Structure formats: C-alpha cells, structure tokens
Amino acid sequence: PRFPAEPLGYWIDRVEQRLRVGMLAKASKVIQEAAAEGKLSEAIDEVRMLYLGLQKRGAIDQIVTLANVASEVMTLHDNLQRSGRRSGVPFGFPYLDEVSSGAQPADTVALVGRPSQGKSYILMNMANYAYDHGETPLVATYEMAPVQCARRILALRTHVSATTIRLGRLSYWGREKVLTDIGRLGDMSGRPFHLMQGTLKSTVEDLVLRVQELRPTVVYVDGAYLLRTASKNASRWERVSETAEYLKMIASEFAIPVIATYQFNRKGAGTLG
C-alpha cells in the first residue's frame, strides 16, 4: 500500500532479529526434548550448532564512508611509522615478514604440501616465533599428541634435537638448557602458549568454541583437512572446502590470523599447483 517511512536498514535488522529468535526457539525445543530423554550428546551438539549459527548470523554487512576509513588508514600508518613495528603477526621468515608485514587480522593462510615435507615444522616454527614476539598463539593439532607438539617446540626454542629428546639421550647441558626454557615459559604464564589436541571426531565448531574461550591473538591448525563439520554426508573435498570457509569466519569474526596446513597426496589426478 505505501512504502514504510523508516530506513530500509531498520526493517533488515527486524527481519534478522526475527530469524535469530526463530533459531533460538527451534533449538530450545530440540535441546529440551533431548535432555528429557537423557540424550546428553545430542543436546550438546544442538547447543554447539545454535552458537555457531548465531555467530554466522552476526554482522552480515557493514556500510562505512571512504572518508572515515581513509582517516583510519593514515592513523594506522602513522602509528606503525612511529613505532617501527610490523602490523601483523610475524611468520618468522625475515623476507616474508618484510614484504608482508606479517599475517594480518582476518587473514587465512594455507600451507600445502606432500606428506612428510615439513609442514608441521614450519607451522610450529611460526607459532614459536610469534610467541617470542608478544603474541598468544593457539596451536590446534589433529596429526599429533600435545607431547609430540611440545617436544618439537622445545627443540625449536632451545636448538636441541627433538629426536634426542624423544630417545632420552640429552646430555647434562642439553637437559639443563631445556629445563631453563621450560622455567621461562612458566614465568610467562600470563601469556600462555595454548596447545589443543583434536581427534578424528573433532569439528570446526569445537575450534570456534575454544577460540571464543581462550581469545588467542593467532590460531595455527595442523592438519586442517582432518577437521569435520556438521555436514554428515559431504565428500572429502566438500568437507575441506567447508572447513576452509569456517576458518575464514573465525579469522574475520575474531579479527585474528588463522594459519593452517593441508596435505596434498600423490593419489588422484591433478598437480600440486
């Protein structure tokens, strides 16, 4: 009959709010029924999916003026110029840090390679370097146990062979070196180095919840291709693609870089490129 007087954005917000209320009502019913029947795992899964769904329905878009953002660009420039620091999380490779100024907030970076070519080593090296330069990393590993992950990081930090540590063959001085570094890590407990062990049942929703809880400044995912999503019948490649989209959502939602490794097998058609 007549076009409403309110700005269109007002009605968009109302429709979005109605959608969220509907999501809450539907999930509440499922959770209540599952709890009444003692199906705890189903209730928890529904809570996870509700949280993730509401996160995805966060800021759908944002309208700003170029003039306002341009001023912010120059403010960031001037702060960096005065401080002499890089703007992002360092990779730990001088040339790469020089040309990129580190991994920026909301960046997703993929490390892709054949099996046993050093992807995990590079990832651990990046995480360790970032930690030593003031960041609070979360390393989510789906290919090794936390002890294996910690052993590699300690070896990187102390320049002692990880194999020597694993085989119990440290010299007296090597052992003292490692213990000293562990003591330093304890002194820096106000800025933890988080390790998260995943399983073959781990989902990207679990990772989102941990990021929400721990609030790291950068996330490293070792073996992102092993992460699962809520999609039950998705093929391997569909799952990898969907997982990558979720990792991008984490990076954007929490304004932190997410760096992940992916394994490229020799089987099947196609090249590494």
Provide an overview of this structure.
- The protein has about 270 residues and is an alpha/beta fold.
- About 55% of the residues lie in helices and about 10% in strands.
- The chain contains ten helices and five strands.
- It has helices spanning about 10-35, 40-55, 65-85, 95-100, 120-130, 145-160, 160-165, 170-185, 205-215, 235-255; strands at about 110-115, 135-140, 195, 220, 260-265.
- It has a five-stranded parallel sheet with strand order 1-5-4-2-3, sandwiched between helices.
- Helix 6 crosses helix 8.
- The radius of gyration is 22 Å and the shape is globular.
Brief characterization of the structure:
The chain is 55% helix and 10% strand.
What descriptors fit this protein?
273 residues; 5-stranded parallel sheet; alpha/beta; 10 helices; single chain; 5 strands; 10% strand
* Lateral strand order in the biggest sheet: 1-5-4-2-3
Uncertain residue segments: none
Query: Helix/strand/pairing class, anyone?
Result: alpha/beta
Beta-strand residue percentage: 5-15%
Helix content bin: 40-55%
Largest sheet: number of strands, sense, barrel closure: 5 strands, parallel
In terms of quaternary structure, the protein is single chain
Order of helices and strands: HHHHEHEHHHEHEHE
- Principal-axes geometry comes out as globular
